[in-house]
Write a structure and sequence with these properties.
mainly beta; Immunoglobulin-like; disordered N terminus; 5-stranded mixed beta sheet; 3 domains
Length: 513
């Protein structure tokens, strides 16, 4: 049967055709725009000044970090020495800075390209070569392997690094630290590389590896009844695991499963909460001339004792000290603004120096600018950081229905420090913010668990993106528990243990926190 070839389409059919064409054009423009935006990332190294030479292939075409592969080629000039180069990436969280100051705005992610040598090859008399290599540790996903002659690219092959995970140990009493080690995480791809960890089919939180080069360690406590528990990594770029992955275009992605067995025995309890607080970072005396100030420590939790030091001032001069802060809220019409908080005044000695005892204030966490004024003029500045700390649970044990206060101080005002997520027995509960309360947050929780030990973990999160249109971007990380907390700009993690009593019994093991 011959096709029915008619004249130009008219009426509803034509309108539908034009609409479909417009939609396809928009999709194509979006794809091209994305490719263009990522062009410097993906193809910066893929220039071939003298054109392509020979043919290359890699076998197998994909594998995990540490696996073996072979790059081979033919059609090259005999006796030529070739450099084999693996294309790499480096990632970072984008935090907006203006004039060297962090504005508090989170802008998402950015990546830079790099490379590492896989060795050299000498082309044989038949014009071929073969180079075995070990897949380097780094981001997962697609990587270019370049063949270079005299410094110029002459060909390339592609290799896909797949995600891989392992778990240790596989058994232990409640509270045992379970470590899930993951390699080959593809944080560059908005869909492929974003996973949630689930515990007994409940969401615990999400993993990232932006600053840890595609590898991550997730450490969770063994929780729940004695017996077997299921731990899974599930693809989750849209704020929750996509359960029909096998029937999607990404059905090839791995979703590792592990079984952990909770055994009888004494619980493994976390350290007292005060011992989990960030360690103070010592300050450094500046070497520049003129009036200078610095703090020691330069970074510490609320209430930590320290000193403010000054030098290079005129002798016997009054110096007024104050630090910058923010006040307000992101969720009210009044908004927020910067403010200056007086600290104290001090008079320099005969050498123009001073030492002032200083306690880290009970205030918004994060970086603050400390300024010294003489006669109302700012003559010296420095920066100090207030770290988030947890206070002991109140109470730390009780029967079903007990009201528990979870108390944190030193939360910040920025989109990466004003928020933390709460996970109980490896199940995500929700989040809290501390901007409007000057960094001081109390979260009420009601004990609803069976008698025994239960674990409350606090993890960092991202509040939102500066660009509201990017709030729904993939991957969706906002107001979720980031389990890989060392990869987060706000490296906060605290673990509590609560004991649910039965008929008035009390905890008989180590003290609770």
């Amino acid at each position: 049967m011959k096709p029915n070839i008619a004249g130009p389409l008219t009426g509803p059919t034509a309108r539908r055709g034009r609409l479909l064409g417009a939609v396809l054009a928009l999709l194509l423009a979006a794809i091209v725009g994305t490719a263009a935006a990522q062009g410097n990332l993906v193809t910066a190294q893929a220039t071939f000044p003298n054109g392509l030479k020979g043919e290359v292939q890699v076998a197998p075409a994909n594998g995990i970090v540490g696996s073996q592969a072979v790059l081979s080629g033919k059609g090259f000039d005999a006796g030529t020495t070739l450099d084999i180069v693996w294309g790499t990436f480096a990632g970072q969280w984008k935090l907006e800075h203006v004039d060297g100051e962090y504005t508090g705005n989170f802008l998402g992610r950015s990546f830079d390209t790099g490379e590492r040598s896989l060795g050299t090859a000498t082309v044989g008399a038949d014009g071929g070569f073969s180079v075995p290599f070990t897949v380097p540790e780094g981001f997962g996903g697609n990587h270019d392997i370049y063949v270079r002659e005299a410094g110029d690219n002459v060909n390339k092959a592609g290799y896909r690094v797949d995600m891989n995970a392992s778990m240790t140990p596989d058994s232990g009493p409640v509270g045992t630290n379970i470590t899930v080690h993951v390699t080959g995480i593809d944080d560059i791809n908005n869909i492929v590389g974003w996973y949630a960890l689930t515990y007994d089919n409940a969401i615990t939180g999400f993993m990232t590896a932006m600053t840890t080069h595609g590898s991550a360690d997730i450490v969770i406590p063994a929780a729940g009844r004695v017996g077997k528990h299921l731990i899974e990594l599930r693809n989750a770029p849209f704020d929750a695991p996509y359960l029909a992955l096998q029937s999607s275009p990404y059905g090839y992605l791995p979703e590792p499963q592990f079984t952990f067995t909770v055994t009888d025995g004494d619980p493994v309890l976390p350290a007292p909460i005060g011992d989990q607080d960030p360690k103070a970072v010592a300050g450094t005396e500046p070497t520049a001339s003129g009036p200078q100030i610095w703090t020691d420590p330069a970074s510490a939790g609320v209430f930590t004792a320290g000193h403010v030091y000054g030098k290079g001032f005129a002798p016997d001069t009054k110096v007024d000290l104050a630090y910058s802060a923010m006040s307000g809220s992101r969720v009210t019409m009044e908004g927020y603004s910067s403010t200056t908080v007086p600290v104290d005044s001090v008079t320099t000695d005969a050498t123009g120096s001073f030492t002032l005892p200083f306690q880290v204030p009970d205030a918004l966490g994060g970086e603050h600018r400390l300024q010294a004024q003489v006669g109302g003029e700012v003559v010296a500045t420095t920066h100090f950081t207030i770290d988030s700390i947890g206070l002991p649970l109140d109470p730390a044990q009780g029967p079903f229905g007990t009201h528990i206060d979870l108390h944190v101080k030193g939360l910040g005002w920025t989109q990466t420090t004003n928020i933390f997520a709460v996970v109980i027995d490896n199940v995500y509960l929700g989040y809290g913010c501390g901007f409007s309360t000057n960094g001081d947050v109390v979260i009420p929780i009601t004990a609803s668990w069976a008698p025994g030990w239960h674990f409350i973990d606090l993890y960092p999160s991202f509040y939102r993106n500066k660009d509201y249109s990017a709030v729904d971007e993939q991957p969706f990380l906002y107001r979720q528990a980031v389990l890989t907390w060392r990869d987060h700009p706000h490296q906060m993690h605290l673990r509590y243990a609560f004991y649910v009593t039965d008929d008035g019994t009390v905890a008989s093991s180590r003290s609770v926190n």
